[in-house]
Write a structure and sequence with these properties.
It is built from 17 helices and 15 strands. It is an alpha/beta fold. The chain folds into two domains: 118 residues, 2-Layer Sandwich (Alpha-Beta Plaits); 295 residues, TIM Barrel, CATH 3.20.20. α6 packs parallel to α7 and α8 crosses α9. The longest helix has 19 residues. The N and C termini lie far apart (52 Å). The structure holds 2-carboxyarabinitol-1,5-diphosphate (CAP) and magnesium ion.
């Protein structure tokens, strides 16, 4: 008998504290049980051969494939396998070597159901949707953000001016691009200082609260220094590229933000390396759930209709999983049941090729409890950033007040100009 079959037990009843993973597996010529046994073994405590060191107490805490439907398999991992409060360790186990196994042609981690005991060991978002709405004092409409474009290359002064114009036009959050940190042409500290000055001015003139997702992504100690600088300039937020920074970097930042009372905007640059191929890798849902547990306050979820890939089901399931307090199992969609308990919700941020002409469609799909981020869709406005920001707010106002788009073009000149340029086109 292959030692791997010891990791398949269809009679096993998962314990309360077991972590459950849902995989889709395509074996490479092996029997299905042999392949799923190998996945359960390599992600828990088995290897390619029998072992003289495998004592009963070790065998007892092995992973077990316990449920199968077609190519979908659930594997239960006893809690002893994990270090509490250590997301990097969890991923090294259940999302580690297995994706490179010769035994599988394709392997997809669709979802993780974290047990209560593990949920308690992570902080979750500090503010979440409600908390962010409270400190921004914005109710009943999507929050708005903008990333200055071009992505990188602007001087600090140019960047801060673009921020000012966007804030003055009605945008809530300025946002850095994922590849802007502390380059020569736009130093982090100088940028924080210049943007804080502009924020104060914009807040005074508009009477609205303005904030900034300033990108602190760097070596982790440096990241904390940058978060402190942002805090000293009065920003409530920091932004982190959570995939490139990694779980440990994010957790370190999250710990810091607890004391400094800062919210975290999670950018997901690089996620598509492992989320894009639907047959292999890790789903965005898995990544986002793990980020929610660690404790980000916003996360990018995609647009369905914008410039980046993401099917409607995928994006909307993601949106619900971030916003809701519980989710029902939906095997067809690759979703496990989840009860988020005390873990707060995360603001889903829809971004990537949005412009005012397609915001109604975004709100039709996702509702109003979202954040919309427009870069090109604001700074590409024929009359500049401020008009682009105004057109964005007008598109939202028109939608909420149910103003017909034809009437809207009469009342809102900036929106009209945006629609003249882009219409309702879906960028590719
Ligand atoms: C959007 C963006 C974001 C993407 C990331 C960009 O700019 O700043 O990084 O949205 O993708 O550089 O593309 P535009 P996602 O508004 O000009 O498209 O949100 O899917 O993670
Ligand atoms: Mg970007």
């Amino acid at each position: 008998m292959s030692q791997y079959l010891d990791f398949v037990d269809m009679k096993y009843k998962p314990k309360k504290d077991d972590l459950i993973c849902l995989f889709r597996i395509e074996p490479n010529g092996l029997s299905f049980n042999d392949a799923i046994g190998r996945v359960a073994a390599e992600s828990s405590n088995g290897t390619w051969t029998t072992l003289s060191t495998l004592k009963p107490h070790i065998r007892k805490i092995r992973g077990r494939a316990f449920y199968r439907k077609g190519n979908l398999v659930k594997i239960a991992y006893p809690s002893e396998l994990f270090e509490l409060g250590n997301m990097a360790q969890v991923y090294s186990a259940i999302a580690g070597n297995i994706f490179g196994m010769k035994a599988v042609d394709n392997l997809r981690l669709l979802d993780i159901d974290f047990p209560d005991m593990m949920m308690k060991s992570f902080r979750g978002p500090q503010f979440g949707i409600e908390g962010v709405r409270k400190f921004m004092k914005v109710k009943g409409r999507p929050l708005t953000a903008t990333v200055p474009k071009p992505k990188v290359g602007m001087t600090t002064r140019e960047h801060a001016k673009v921020g000012y114009d966007a804030w003055m036009g009605g945008i809530d959050f300025l946002k850095d691009d994922e590849n802007l940190t502390d380059q020569k042409f736009n130093r982090f500290k100088a940028r924080a200082k210049a943007c804080a000055k502009m924020r104060d001015k914009a807040e005074k003139k508009t009477g609205e609260i303005k904030d900034y997702f300033i990108n602190v992504t760097a070596e982790s100690k440096e990241m904390l220094k940058r978060a402190k600088i942002a805090k000293n300039y009065g920003f409530k937020y920091v932004m982190c590229d959570i995939v490139t920074a990694g779980w440990s970097g994010l957790q370190t930042l999250r710990e810091h933000c607890q004391d400094s009372k800062q919210a975290i905007h999670a950018h997901r640059a690089m996620h598509a390396t492992f989320t894009r191929n639907p047959k292999h890798g890790i789903s965005m849902l898995t990544l986002a759930k793990s980020a929610r547990l660690v404790g980000v306050d916003n996360i990018h979820i995609g647009t369905v209709i914008g410039k980046l890939v993401g099917t409607k089901d995928e994006v909307l399931n993601l949106e619900r999983e971030m916003e809701y307090h519980s989710m029902r199992e939906d095997f067809k969609e690759g979703i496990l049941e989840e009860d988020w308990k005390r873990i707060k919700s995360v603001f889903p941020c829809s971004s990537g090729g949005l412009h005012p002409g397609i915001l109604p469609e975004i709100m039709d799909m996702m509702g109003k409890n979202i954040m919309v981020q427009l870069g090109g869709g604001i700074h590409g406005h024929p009359d500049g950033t401020k008009s682009g920001a105004m057109a964005t707010r007008q598109a939202i106002d028109a939608y909420i007040r149910k103003v017909k788009i034809k009437e809207a073009t009469l009342i809102y000149p900036e929106l009209t100009r945006a629609l003249n340029k882009w219409g309702h086109e879906k960028p590719v």
